[in-house]
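Chain A, query sequence.
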Amino acid sequence: MSVYLGAWGKVPSKKELSSFEYQRATEVYSADSVLIGKYFLYDRQPVPFEQFPEQLIQALISIEDERFYDHSGVDATSLLRVGIKSILLQDKSSGGGSTLTQQLAKNLYPRKDRQQSNLVVDKIKEMIMASRLEDSYSKKEILTLYLNTVSFGDNTFGVESTALKFFNKHTKDLNLEESAVLVGMLKATYGYNPRVFPENSLRRRNLVLQSMANNDFLTDSEKDSLTQLPLKLDYKKYDYDAGLAPYFREEVRKKLLKWSADEKQNGNDYNIYTNGLKVYTTLDYKMQRIAESVMRKHMKSLQGQFEKSYGKRAPWTSNTKIIEKAVRATPHYKKLVANGLSAKQAWDSLEHKRNMTFEDWSGDRTLMASTIDSVKHYLKFLNTGSLAIDAKTGAVRTWIGGIDFKNFKFDHVAQSQRQVGSTFKPIVYTAALEVGIPPCAYFSASEVEYENLKGWSPSNSGNKDEAYLNYSMEESLSNSVNTVAVKVMEATGIDNVIVQAKKMGVFSKLPEQPSLALGTGEIYANELAGVYASYVNDGMAVLPYLIETITDQKDSVLVNFEPKRAKNRAFSTQTRQIMLEMMKSTINTGTASRIRTTYKMQNDIAGKTGTTQNNKDAWFVALTPKLVSVTWVGLDNHEIGFKSTSLGQGANAALPLFALWYKELGRDKKYDPITKAKFERPSKYVLDQMDCDPVKRDGFFKRLFTDPNKKKTKKFRRKN
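Chain A, predicted structure.
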């Protein structure tokens, strides 16, 4: 009676028990409605009773509570049996005698502690709650509550989440033996975990089947046949660090948190971890899966070439300055120093060796190593950031923020501002066309030393003799001629170029320096994608977006997100058509020609490669009639670059990630509307404007009076 009255702690009332609400995981879906991730405190996806297979209910009742339909929450017969076996016969295997309703009470209101002295009180409390539950709910509702709340281990609650995890199927699709496996886990969620202890799980499954036969839910022949079946899993854990598109899912989570904070100010309180929201994103599941597969293949190969190129004198093993700087930047080092250790003492502490697991493209290795060894190991890794967006709307179709979310949380799409190299040149040339410079204007390829820029003298890659050569705009852009890009910038005006960049959607601050022509501005990859979209979106930039719709657990729409496009054209239709033709030449005959020669692709593609100073950043931007793809490859440590331009240039390091992906899309008829789409044909006026020789050689007299070995000097004109 004292327990009933609350002397041993409050017992939930009938009203409290009848108004129970689940804490539900928020589900994240791809654009094609594939579940790609969850956000949760407890991984739970409740489903209605109608989705429970009959054999699941039969298995549960057979092994856990044979008289479920006969008692009112407490099974006196079972309690008497347990009491006799436990007290009189000292049989520790007799079980606890708890009904499903009592177990449900314990699930809803877990015991505060496990002290032996409180077990009797806890049992009595659970009996009282079970009786109240039976008064408040039907047997069907109790089974529904139980199967949706019970723990199956691994922070997974409810049968739906567990079915998806272990068999990659919904509860309604479970067969009999799978149902028996899951029910069998309830006795000991770790000991009978089929992934960890498959033999234990198999024995327990067969015991459940035997119990079903004992209760006439199966014939002996059916039971014998089923017990001969092997244990088959299709394990799919929703691990936040693993699974498809982890960087994308993390960015979606950040967007959701911002949205929920904004909604709270409007009086709506949504918790993305407990409210069971459904988030429908823009991601294309298959496109993303192919992109990740291609990334792993290419980056593994490139990493091998990268390490081989440095040999034994690699900066991550031999450059003391780089290593020391990296170690001092670690949280471990900073914490030791903050706790009063000297720099030497902190360093000595970090040199202590222990068993550590190092991961690389070949797999995991466990060895004796120190924190400093770990820093050296992870310093060497090339990383990447890439995304593909719908050219018209900005909807993100693929998003790869790095090579491995577990070890490299930094997102190279949304968080990393890197110098963009020659991928900035189309903006320069667009500005030039807009101020009236014709596409057939010629610019000398010769080097110039600018007196008012501390002798700065941009040069071109390669050993081609260009002393007397003049390139058209198309030729210089498609072959990424640095000397001409700077001269086009000078003729256009730096201010005009920066204004043009802003019109096209560049929101990062750009340096007001002539070197901007060569891409010294630092821009985000997703920002660059929105900028380039203007070339296939009627001159209007787009803002890449990730979420289409958010609904509540009952599928009522809470918000729809609309595409955000620039309101005004950033340039004329004529300029857009000319720029597309120039960037088609980059693919057909210029720096990205391996699209045609190596990968044998004949799709309509325009684009631009980019490589920054000292081969620190490799870029490739691809324009297709339907998609814009941006890819970056480099190292997180800005002091380490590729050993050679041939290895680290955009055409070699970044371009293959697009080419291999797009070629794979081309093999799937589903994507024919994308991969077989055609660019619009440019107007006759535009074609006439561009009808000129790509290269013009200086005349005889100019060559006669020009010393090819003497660099021209002049002042860079900042104002026009």
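The first strand starts at residue 26 and ends at 29. Residues 1-9, 86-95, 113-117 have pLDDT under 50 and may be disordered.
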